[in-house]
Amino acid sequence: MTAPPNGCELLEQKCWRERECRFDVKESDLTQQNGEELIDYLPQVEDTKGNNGQSGRLLITNMRLIWMSDKKSKTNLSIGLNAIFQLSIKSVNSRLRGGQTRSLFVSAKSNVHKFQFIFTNAITDTPRLFTTIQAVHRAYDTSRLYREIRLRNAVVNEGQLNLLPNETIIEEVRGVWNLAQAQGQLGHMFITNIRMVWYARSNEIFNISLPYYKVLNLSHKDTKYGKTMVVKCTKTGGGYTLGFRIDPPERVVEVTTQVTGMLGIFKATPILGVDFQREAAPPPLEDLKVEAQEEDVQIIDQGVSDAFADYIVEAISGNVNQRPPVFNADLGLAVEELRDGLTIKSLWSVP
Q1: Is 158 left (phi over 0), alpha (psi -120 to 50) or beta?
Q2: In DSSP terms, which residues pair with 89 in a beta bridge?
Q3: Are strands 76-80 and 64-69 parallel, antiparallel or unpaired?
Q4: What does pTM read for this prediction?
C-alpha cells in the first residue's frame, strides 16, 4: 500500500502552477495552494488569442496568471510566472473593444513548447493590465533565491548572511562538513525560516543556498563519514541528495530535528518572496468562480477545436515529431503536412 504524500511531496506536486502553462484545467487546479496569494483581479479582460470577443476575468497571483471565461469557468488558462520569458505591448484587433487596441502579449515556455497569449482589457483608460503583470513578474524574477537552489552566489559577506526580506536567522551552526566532495569541506551553516545556507570556512564564495521550497525530506544516517544529516531535494530542485557532517557528532541529530521543524513550518505557510503592494485587497479566488450555465445554443463540431493549438507558437525540443513537407497545389509551395482535420483554407479563414 502506497503511503500518502507528506506536506513536502504535496507542495512539489503542485509546483506546476508556477512552472507550466495549462488549458481548461479542473476547478480544484484553480484554487490557491499554500503560499499562493491573489495579488490582483481584473474583470472584463479578453483572451484575444484563443477566445476573441469573449469577456473573462484575469487573476494575478504570486505564482501564475489565471484567465477564466465569464460564460464558463471550465474555459480557462493557467500560466506559470516561471514559464513567462517575455512581456510586451502591441496593437491587435479585438472584438470586445471593436477594433484595434493595445494589448498585452505574454510569451511563455512550458515543457517542449512555446506559447503566446494576448490579453485585452475592455475597460478603457486603465493601465493595470500592463503595469500590474509587469511588476509582479519582475518581483517574481528577482526573488528566485526564495525558491531555487543556488551555488557559489554572493549570499555571504565576511561571514555574515545577506538576509532576504522577511528572513530571520534561527541559528548559525559551526563545524559543518559538506560531503559533496570525497574529502569533504569544512564550513558553517545558517538555518533561517526560509532556507539553509552553507559556506566553506576557507572560501565563502564556495557555498550553497538551499531553500526549503526545494527540500523533499531530511534525515540523519550513519555513513562512512560518521553520523550525517542527509537532505533530499525535490525533482524540480534537481533531485540532489546532499550530506552534511557536524562536529561534534551528537549535534547531527539535534540540528536535523531543528531543520525538520523549520521545514514543516515553511511547508504549512510558505514564504515565496513575491512582494507586491496593492491598493486594495482583491476578493478571494473562490468568490470569482462562475457556475456552469445551460446555454440555448447549438454546438457545431468543426473538428479543429483545440485550446492547446490556439496558443502554441513552436516546439522547442528536437524530440517533437516533425511532419514531412508536402507540395500544396493551392499555394504552389511545399509546406509541412497538416494535422488531420485541418486545411489551408481553415488556417487562413477568420471565424
Answers
A1: left
A2: 104
A3: antiparallel
A4: 0.79
